[in-house]
What we know:
alpha/beta, Spore Coat Polysaccharide Biosynthesis Protein SpsA, Chain A, three-stranded mixed β-sheet, 5 helices, 10 strands, 25% helix, globular
Amino acid sequence: MMTLTAVLLTGGESRRMGRDKATIEFDKQPLWKRQLQILRGLGPERILVSARLKPSWLPADGEFLQDDPPSRGPLSGLTKALTAMRTTHLLALAVDMPFMTSEQLGHFCNLAETSRGIVPVIGDRAEPLAAVYPVEVSSEFSAALAGSDFSLQSLIRTLVVAGKVQPWPVLEEDEHFFLSVNEPDDFKKGRFPNRPP
């Protein structure tokens, strides 16, 4: 039986945005609150919040996971979450993907199998920050963090070959779910004509 831990990845430095992306309002609420509602809607046993520093907005039901220095971006957060969880699978979501929905993530959870996760793919690039990972990938993540190649794209390719994650091609009409915001103009509706209303 599949059991689920969720992690909200908020460890980015937000250099291009000029401020903490997690606190920017989108559809009348801060991104961190919106993303946590999405994760709560999928009924995980625990919700982890991964960041470089403890956020001031950390909710009562969120368990803080601090990146071990030196931080290697989302690789650090995912590795620590995989080590900390006590469930069969980890559901990951980045704080800067404001167009993602519970329905879309729930679809990936339903596709996941025992000892195998689901990583969406658009073109030839994996979308590792809105994906489901089995606990069995923990050793590969730890090895990557201890090595010299911190690319999640490389790591996902390794996991696909090992049969521990299944790449899932994203339909063209669903690609907007995976758009991330990095600059203030990214929030303008005209920038993403295919985003949901």
